[in-house]
Amino acid sequence: MTHTFTYTALPGRVIFGSGTLPRIPDEVRALGCQRALVLSTAEQKDSAAQVAALLGPLCAATFTRAAMHTPVEVTESAMQVASEVRADCTVAVGGGSTTGLGKAIALRTDLPQIVVPTTYAGSEATPILGETAAGRKTTQRSMKVLPEVVIYDVDLTLTLPSALSVTSGINAIAHAVEALYTQDANPVTSMMAEQGTEALAHALPAIVKNPLDKEARSEALLGAWLCGVCLGSVGMALHHKLCHTLGGSFNLPHAETHTVVLPHAVAYNSAAAPEAMKRIARALGASSAAAGLFDLAASLGAPTTLKSLGMPEDALDRAAELATSSPYWNPRPIDRAGIRALLEDAFYGRRPGPA
Ligand code: NAD
Predict the structure, then answer these.
(1) Distance between Cα 204 and ligand 1 center (Å)
(2) Average pLDDT, the chain
(3) How far apart are CA 230 and CA 23, in angstroms?
(4) 165 alpha carbon to ligand 1 midpoint, in Å?
(5) For residue 12, what pLDDT is reported?
(6) Could you tell me the pTM of the whole model?
């Protein structure tokens, strides 16, 4: 086989380990900053307070109202605080929602960002921002939103509830899966994708058994970073498009929707991307990529049906229409009947064959 590819590496500094949180003040200073705005959700305000205490005089304020899907009203409130306290950088502690807020501020102000991820969503490794205005979610790519520094502290992930750990981990695997069959796949991201998938598939069962298993948490977080880099570096396809449509149009939860849809999107693409399927199956230790992904979710007690996420059955036609209304690249061409069938399989949680 001869190789032909284009690969663009993204800039960024990554600090990974256990007990890395106290390194935040040095990282703020290294950016040339002295007035950090610390961000979190209301649920993680204790983590924000912990970071503020570590920062001491380097903390200008905390803002603890980050919310799912980055509503612009929340961004505007945070921007007001940032301007009142003359913040010169942000420190986001949390999952994709909090990271999204830091990115939305950076888009408007160019303030440098330090992100401390506490889920496996991977947003910290991407130049992508999704925002919601008047109930409509739009996504854009801009190097302005790529965080400058990411500090992974495994200790902060120990409190991530088991169910969310599983769906967030499978959300990460989804980035890797699509990176393996995307049109701009390349040997570097494919290697990361395979290793990221393997790490998460190995770690998640151990986390479900014992959420405080630090070794498994470390492996999962490392896998999440690798999968996040894949999402940031190459284009995605059918699976991400479907999840975006379902999440935005039917208000379905992010990580859970990814978990339910992934095996079916992979089954749809299976015959069109045999090499990628082999690599996914190998990383999962399964004989089939699609069935292996379904079995992983089911064995960990994750949701397997769109029905259980609150999607109305009479919305399947509309969802199929929305998901096929604008053209985009996918290894197998997108056809309405095929997508309708995929959505129905996901609605009822049918296990994709073969065994
Ligand atoms: P989230 O950030 O919404 O977190 C879910 C809940 O879990 C929140 O209440 C949060 O405070 C809490 N939580 C997070 N970590 C915790 C921990 N360690 N312990 C206890 N509680 C914790 O969930 P998410 O799945 O990480 O992020 C979803 C959002 O991120 C969506 O809006 C999605 O669109 C976005 N996202 C964006 C990208 C991108 O590249 N732009 C990538 C992935 C996800």
Answers:
(1) 17
(2) 97
(3) 26
(4) 10
(5) 96
(6) 0.98
